[in-house]
């Protein structure tokens, strides 16, 4: 294991996420398609950042880079003080397991396993004994109010309950960072509110850094900070309330602008 990984958790007050001039291109033969352009971002510990953008804006690609599921074509990405672009696949898997908890739109729970077994899985992958992993899973399930359902399977739970199980699974290894990719996309309005309040509580009471990808302004409103992307570039990075105000204003202006009407053809023109 590299010396860099041995420094995990001892990065002092440095940003938890620190990316500089990050670009990403996908290649098909000799043809390169660039999807991210020179992104700079520093996320301090304890931040709650929402990333917004339309389909094709690059937000999913950026989330994959944040989560060490993909690597940038150029630039630098320090995660908890570690230069991720210099790591092997095995080392990337290690830093993911130690540093990041993932919450996905589709929950990604294993149907044949119990709720407790699903939550314990990251610890099992990390080499923790099954008895200890199960005990820690029950602790996290109790925190999300689902300890009594530990023996059920995911298909016996509601969508909101499944997402809370996914949150417990993300937290079981005590990571400093949660990456949530459209975590309310499959949930109704009331359940979405409950899930977002859970994220706020994790951020405020446990100091966990939250990085959330969403296309919904009402979900982004729960965050402290907002980044808006368009065509792989940063349009805005600042307080969430101000960013959402600007977004709403731009939508209002677009709605007030009359559609372009072509001038009527003059006599003699085809």
How is this structure best described in words?
By secondary structure, the protein is of the alpha/beta class. The protein contains 8 helices and 10 strands. It has helices at residues 59-66, 89-99, 115-125, 130-143, 159-171, 189-206, 217-220, 240-256; strands at 17-28, 31-43, 48-52, 74-79, 82-83, 100-104, 177-181, 209-213, 225-230, 233-239. It has a 6-stranded mixed beta sheet with strand order 6-7-8-3-9-10, with helices on both faces. It has a 4-stranded antiparallel beta sheet with strand order 2-1-4-5, covered by helices on one side. Strand 4 (74-79) and strand 5 (82-83) form a beta hairpin. Helix 3 packs parallel to helix 5 (159-171) and helix 5 (159-171) runs parallel beside helix 6 (189-206). The protein is globular. Residues 6-11 and 266-270 have low confidence and may be disordered.
List descriptors:
270 residues; alpha/beta; single chain; 10 strands; 8 helices; six-stranded mixed sheet; disordered C terminus; four-stranded antiparallel sheet
Helix tally equals: 8
List SSEs in N-to-C order: EEEHEEHEHHHEHEHEEH
Strand order of the largest sheet: 6-7-8-3-9-10
Radius of gyration: 21 Å
Outline = globular
User: Main sheet?
Assistant: 6 strands, mixed
Content of β-strand: 15-25%
Describe what is shown at a glance:
The protein is α/β, with parallel strands linked by helices and about 270 residues long.
Task: Lay out the secondary structure.
Elements: E1 17-28, E2 31-43, E3 48-52, H1 59-66, E4 74-79, E5 82-83, H2 89-99, E6 100-104, H3 115-125, H4 130-143, H5 159-171, E7 177-181, H6 189-206, E8 209-213, H7 217-220, E9 225-230, E10 233-239, H8 240-256
Parallel strand pairs: 3-8, 3-9, 6-7, 7-8
Antiparallel strand pairs: 1-2, 1-4, 4-5, 9-10
């Amino acid at each position: 294991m590299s010396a860099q990984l041995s420094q995990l958790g001892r990065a002092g007050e440095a940003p938890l996420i620190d990316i500089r001039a990050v670009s990403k291109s996908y290649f098909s033969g000799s043809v390169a398609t660039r999807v991210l352009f020179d992104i700079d971002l520093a996320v301090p510990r304890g931040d709650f950042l929402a990333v917004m953008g339309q389909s094709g804006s690059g937000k999913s690609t950026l989330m994959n880079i944040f989560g060490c599921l993909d690597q940038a074509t150029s630039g630098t990405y320090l995660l908890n003080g570690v230069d991720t672009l210099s790591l092997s696949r095995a080392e990337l898997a290690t830093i993911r397991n130690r540093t990041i908890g993932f919450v996905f739109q589709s929950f990604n729970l294993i149907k044949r396993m119990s709720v407790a077994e699903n939550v314990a899985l990251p610890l099992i992958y990390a080499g923790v004994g099954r008895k200890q992993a199960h005990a820690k899973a029950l602790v996290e399930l109790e925190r999300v109010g689902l300890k009594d359902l530990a023996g059920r399977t995911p298909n016996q739970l509601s969508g909101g309950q499944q997402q809370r199980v996914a949150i417990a699974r993300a937290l079981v290894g005590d990571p400093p960072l949660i990456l949530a990719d459209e975590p309310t996309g499959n949930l109704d309005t009331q359940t979405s509110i409950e899930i977002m309040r859970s994220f706020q509580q994790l951020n405020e009471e446990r100091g966990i850094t939250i990085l959330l990808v969403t296309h919904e302004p009402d979900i982004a409103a729960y965050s402290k900070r907002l980044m808006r992307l368009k065509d792989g570039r940063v349009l805005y990075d600042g307080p969430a309330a101000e960013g959402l105000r600007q977004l709403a204003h731009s939508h209002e202006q677009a709605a007030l602008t009359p559609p372009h009407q072509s001038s009527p053809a003059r006599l003699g023109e085809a």
